[in-house]
Amino acid sequence: MKELIEYEKGVINAGDDSRIRKVMRRAADGEAIKLAFLGGSITQGCLASTPEGCYAYLTYAWWKQAFPKADFTYINAGIGGTTSHLGTGRVEEDVLQYEPDFVIVEYSVNDDGNSAHFQETYEGLVRRILKASCEPALLLVHNVRYDDGCNAEQIHVPVGAHYHLPSVSMKPTIYAQVEAGNIKNRDITPDDLHPNDAGHALVAGVITHYLESVKKAVEEESSAEAAPAAGEAQDAPCGVLPEPMTANGYENAHRYRNDELKPVLCKGFVKDESEQSCVSDCFKKGFTASQKGDKIVFEVEGASIGVQYKKTMKGPIPKATLTLDGDTANTVLLDGNFDEDWDCLYLETILEHGEHKVHRIEIQLTETHDNDTEPFYFVSLIVAG
After folding, report:
1. Which is nearest to 165 in space by CA: 10, 7, 59, 11?
2. pLDDT tier, 4 (very low <50, low <70, confident <90, very high otherwise)
3. How are beta strands 102-106 and 137-142 bridged, if at all?
4. Average per-residue pLDDT for the chain
5. By the 8 A CB rule, do 6 and 209 touch?
């Protein structure tokens, strides 16, 4: 199938590849290089038969083969069912604290392509990575649904273009061949969203075809001291970026879990102190509750707040009501019962671009059932602005 893909069409924004070139020069010299992948279930490797079969690992394997003298570290920070909103809150803990040299961000089948909110969170995530002190190279990857060709490119691509970032897409490459009838959906994906092994290999192929072109350009440079290539003149100091294209309220978002989040009142909620085994072991460091009337209260400072809780297919489970700043006329229902065949790390925005101040968040169980299968699980708060 790979011979059908027009790989050159995958580069939807050539951008400024100077940071990637620098990483490749260092890799060619045998330095230690850290590769990080941040995204949703496709990045995590959902429906690949083994962890080594996902596009992220296959891209890592390409780097190892292309630069055999280098010592590579692989960081897979994919979590299924999550968006760039959560990405803004966890990128520091799950990616940037390791000081990566090269980062791929992939959220184009998770973010809502018609949402100004997700364009803003995506931009905040991009800016956070670009301003990191380790100055990582950033490549934006856009996956796609294989039944209708939908993704969030219409809001993500303008962000990439604004920051002159290299971007590759599965829409004009793999999906184009599906739409033309040259590749059958079920040969590459069982559900029109998550690739199987063959699909992951094609996704990796689109990415590594682009990386091969950059590697070739690096090799054609006369020396490390040669004049920068046409697209490589951007050597602005770390952190110097264009003005934001959105309201940019999420660049400094932070995810608060029970190791940082201290309740001002706690009745019946229990701190989950079980150990988190990996990034995708995501229902950890939260609080659980089972009895009607159980209540927990937090006070956090910011202008935008998202509440994260578990939605499960194994219901019924208790339901909770959230009250923000004592506004009992506009409470938010937190219903952990999920009409799907998977468990979701659900994130709900309860305040966006509000007043920057200390806000009071009260969560109380208001509905329980005799046959509840598990407790209500509050996971975290994402606070920004």
Report:
1. 11
2. very high
3. parallel
4. 95
5. no
